[in-house]
Amino acid sequence: MIEARRPWTAQEELTLRQMAPDHKWADIAKVLNRSPRAVQKYAVDRRILRATDGRDWSPSDINRLRSEYPHMTTAVVAELLGRTASSVRAKAYELGIMKDPGFISNLRQGLARKAAIQRSTSAFLQGRAGRFDREGGVYTPTQDAVHHLQKIGPIWRCRADGTTDPKGDHWKFNGRVMDAAAVEARAERAGWVRP
Q1: Among candidate residues 52, 67, 91, the one where a domain is terminated
Q2: pLDDT tens across 167-192, in order?
């Protein structure tokens, strides 16, 4: 049984120091009759290091790191090498391997594009004007009104005679055929605010 908060003896600390390089915290804890968390905390507080569970870097791993790391994300290189991203980053730092400036520039441009897309998506969700529809055209106030009415019930494009037409200039809503002005007026009655 594991005792709660009992003081560490000199013999236990010696055992911990001897076992730490080659054993896991759980194994040491069983020998010392303590919880793995207590053993780990005591060791960390006293800077007793445990050997890593990782494997050594082979010359072929290092060569691959030198060739791939400058031109790929750390996560991709880590997956290729079967290692963690932090171990890849640490080894690259240790060897003085840097990311290629061109790669970083492209990565930043990609992140800037992603941020711009997220901003435009956010604007779309907030109902601001200047958005783009699926066909690539600019959204009009009528399209905003249609999106508002979709919250109430089904609405779809049609011709003036009520025949369904995805490119029609009228909309059918609650059995009524409406032009753009009628759609906007109906949406305003339903709480839509013109952007």
Answers
A1: 52
A2: 888 989 888 999 999 999 998 988 88
3 and 21 inside one domain: yes
Closest by CA to 15, choosing from 37, 35, 43, 41, is: 43
Give the span between the Cα atoms of 103 and 19, in whole angstroms.
Answer: 44
Sheet order of strands, 176-178 included: 155-158, 170-173, 176-178
Give Rg (Cα) of the chain.
32
Residues 89 and 65 in one domain: yes
User: How many angstroms separate the CA atoms of 27 and 36, rounded?
Assistant: 8
Q: Which of 146, 154, 156 is nearest to 192 (CA)?
A: 146
58-76 pLDDT, tens per residue? 899 999 999 999 988 898 8
Structure tokens at 101: 């400036």
Condensed to tens digits (0 to 9), the pLDDT of residues 149-167 reads 888 888 888 999 988 888 8
Owning domain of residue 84: 59-99
- Residues 25, 43 within the same domain: yes
